[in-house]
Amino acid sequence: MDHILPHIARPLPIVIDTDPAGGIFLRDIDDVLAIFFLLASAEVRVDALTVTYGNASLEKTLRVARRIRAFSGRHDLPVLAGASSRRDRGRRTAAADFIVEYFRENRGCAVLLTLGPLTNLATALLMEPRLADWIPAVVMMGGNLFASFPLKPLAGFEFNFAMDVKSTEFVLGSPLKKWIAATDLCVQTQFTRQGLASLQKLNPHSAVDRLCRIGEWIRVNNLILGSRGFFPWDPVAAAMLVKPELYEDVRDAPLTIRGKGFRSRLTFSADKGLTRPCAVPMKLRAEEFMDLLIKRLSIT
Description:
Strand order of the largest sheet: 3-2-1-4-5-6-12-9
Number of domains: 1
Number of helices: 12
Strand content: 15-25%
Helix content: 25-40%
Mean pLDDT: 91
Structural class: alpha/beta
CATH topology: Inosine-uridine Nucleoside N-ribohydrolase, Chain A
CATH class: Alpha Beta
Largest sheet: 8 strands, mixed
Number of strands: 12
Shape: globular
CATH architecture: Alpha-Beta Complex
Order of helices and strands: EHEHEHEHHEHEHEHHHEHEEEEH
């Protein structure tokens, strides 16, 4: 897979639209890992966090986003509140306003990474349709194509896109150039106790481990799902911006979403004339990805 924006000099400017919940009981830590990973990566420059509901309420995800800012030492990093539920689609928020203005000022030379429901992005597009021309690429974590989960309790399950299907339909139908890390890709690797041991050996006091308590999340996944570890959903999407050569078998076709709720599915369209470009890598070089993730997290 080529660089998503090869014509733009590195570090690549990015805005992260996110629903972080690391440190909250029984809530996924993947957003926090992805953000710390990107903050530690010289290939990109994180310019802001726009926050949404999803893994937890907006009030809680905002609190976690501010803790990320404090733990990372990036006190200059803007953290902006967005949608509190899918009912906020179309309602102006600080996050939606920021997305429009940021990409107006940085048109053609910055990327949006979405790690939660797409309500903030859909709202920004409704406010300013020209946004689709200003953002040269959006990288998204979400959607399920073939339900190829190794764990039966999660068979067919998807979260981010399903939280606001109408916003997902709207964004997928837009002319934005979309790169999607679907769940089919993300389940090809797990963050295990061996990975945690490697991280702690490199840095026994890493900020991300102190904030997320990674060992506890591994234990929760083991108890509830019987897995060896947890799926690093959002870091898989984030690493597309850092090391795209880890992603192979890229399908390039329009996508639609079918069904309702957490078992909705993404479907490829055979109509190449549709102006809904989506690039979907189907294979991850998992061992290399995990090695990169742990090394970058150890910097925090």
